[in-house]
Design a protein that fits this description.
The complex is a heterodimer of chains A (241) and B (199). Chain A has 241 residues and is mainly α. Helix content of chain A is 74%, strand content 0%. The longest helix of chain A is centred in the last third of the chain and has 38 residues. The radius of gyration of chain A is 24 Å and the shape is extended. The N terminus of chain A is likely disordered. With 199 residues, chain B is α+β, with helices and mostly antiparallel strands. Chain B has 2 domains: 92 residues, no CATH class; 88 residues, Sandwich (Immunoglobulin-like), CATH 2.60.40.10. In chain B, the strands form 3 sheets. Chain B has a 5-stranded mixed β-sheet with strand order 4-10-9-6-7, with no helix packed on it. In chain B, strands 3-5-8 form a 3-stranded mixed β-sheet, with no helix packed on it. In chain B, strand 1 and strand 2 form a beta hairpin. In chain B, helix 1 crosses helix 3. The longest helix of chain B has 58 residues. Chain B is rod-shaped and about 120 Å long. Chains A and B meet through helix 2, helix 5, helix 7, helix 8 and helix 9 of A and helix 1, helix 2 and helix 3 of B.
């Protein structure tokens, strides 16, 4: 039930490739055709105007900047540092960005995205370094170490276990060769180039195999979600009656 | 399976497909594959603003983690199975090497059975389905020509012949379980009878 919010079928290029491999009518009926992706919000922003308004200390411009970047900043920080103190870190980063813009550190307003990214990366590096120094000092003093909590919670752990089981089943049902290809790529971290050379595959065959595995993973996820939803519906019904 | 460093580190990777990141780029980023600084810049700047690609990356992360976990489990499994199968085969082979020849030899060799007169109340026993070499007690028998027959409890004769002069042994193929009578005859008359229990 938990997994399913997170799993969806392959999208964009792989999805359309997969769709092409099956019959068109089937894909339409199964809803596998690529949904038109939304526009990138960055395309519509007047970067120069926004930067000018921030420099003029316009609160609405600061809010606009926050709305534009807060999710992305959070996303990149969480990937590197985990969720601990995430709101504080996003806020600190945002303040640094605004102050830097107001100081005139950003010379090319069109490069605002790159500028924000650079600040995020510096913040991540600074945190890692600070944490490293702190650990080293604490280790010198009393041997106790405080490490940021990057462990996944029980809910995420359950999702991970269930997803691993789905994937295990898919791999078991694969041919020996397909399983080897997927194992080489995902587990042994071999490059596509190496796998294709050594196993006599072309790029299309390789991509197709991966996208099929993703599609099956997604289908099985949905199937389990439907099953769990049905189960919880009857449990609720029984509890009510 | 050795991991070889890519000769051309993802340089041909297409990062953007019209407005959004390609699945290949998201997958490479999720797997932590070597992307050039300029490729990384494009990916992360796009992710900074695009919620659609952020969601896709989250899903890709789930798939990649599941693929690693699932493949890891299976990669460990066949070795265990093979080693288990191999060890069982080796153990069976060793056991066969030690015990089979002996067992086969034993199966091929006849079992010696000493037959004594019924009147002594002693009962000779023999294993079933094994070649037998019966040695009847010939004490005090003086007849020049002695014949023998082995009869089952129902009276059916299972074997007969002349007693060989060298020690008077009777060779019998394997018999099924049951009671048998071994009779020695001279000039058509039974001159001695032995009980044989095959079990």
């Amino acid at each position: 039930m938990l997994i399913m919010n997170a799993i969806d079928g392959p999208s964009s290029s792989e999805e359309s490739e997969f769709s092409r491999s099956a019959s068109e009518s089937q894909n339409n009926s199964q809803g596998l055709m690529a949904v038109e992706p939304p526009q990138n919000p960055g395309e519509q922003v007047d970067w120069a105007g926004l930067v000018a308004r921030i420099q003029a200390n316009d609160p609405a411009a600061q809010e606009e900047l926050y709305n534009l970047f807060s999710r992305g900043i959070k996303f990149l920080i969480v990937r590197q540092l985990g969720r601990q103190d995430i709101e504080d870190r996003v806020h600190d980063t945002f303040v640094i960005v605004v102050q830097a813009i107001q100081r005139g550190d950003l010379r090319e307003p069109e490069r605002l995205m790159g500028f924000v990214r650079t600040i995020v990366r510096r913040q991540i590096s600074a945190f890692i370094e600070k944490n490293y120094m702190k650990r080293r000092d604490e280790l010198d003093v009393d041997g106790s170490v405080k490490i940021a909590d990057r462990q996944i919670g029980p809910e995420e752990q359950a999702i991970r276990v269930q997803n691993a089981q789905i994937m295990e089943e898919i791999l078991r049902e694969c041919s020996r060769r397909d399983r080897e290809i997927l194992t080489r790529f995902y587990l042994l971290e071999q490059s596509q180039q190496q796998i294709c050379e050594e196993m006599g595959l072309n790029d299309t065959q390789f991509r197709l195999l991966k996208s099929r595995a993703k599609q099956r993973f997604s289908d099985e996820g949905r199937r389990r979600m439907a099953k769990n939803n049905l189960k919880s519906f009857f449990v609720r019904k029984r509890a009510v009656s | 399976m050795e991991r070889r460093l890519p000769e051309n580190p993802e340089s041909e990777l297409q990062i953007l497909d019209r407005l959004h990141l390609t699945d290949e780029a998201l997958e490479a980023y999720s797997l932590g594959r070597t992307l050039s600084e300029s490729q990384l810049e494009v990916v992360e700047e796009h992710l900074m603003l695009c919620a659609y690609c952020q969601n896709r990356l989250d899903k890709m992360d789930l798939f990649v983690t599941a693929a690693k976990d699932g493949a890891r489990t299976l990669a460990a499994e066949p070795e265990q199975k093979v080693s288990k199968a191999v060890s069982i085969t080796i153990a069976a082979g060793v056991a066969a090497a030690f015990f089979l020849p002996g067992a086969l030899r034993e199966m091929a060799l006849p079992v010696d059975v000493e037959l004594v007169a019924v009147r002594n109340q002693a009962k000779a026993t023999a294993p079933f389905d094994r070649k037998l070499e019966l040695k009847p007690d010939l004490t005090d028998l003086t007849a020049a020509a002695i014949s023998w027959e082995v009869a089952a409890a129902d009276g059916s004769v299972r074997g007969s012949g002349d007693l060989s002069p060298n020690g008077g042994k009777i060779q019998m193929p394997g018999l099924e379980r049951g009671r048998y009578w071994v009779r020695l005859k001279a000039s058509g008359e039974v001159i001695r009878e032995f009980s044989l229990l095959v079990k």
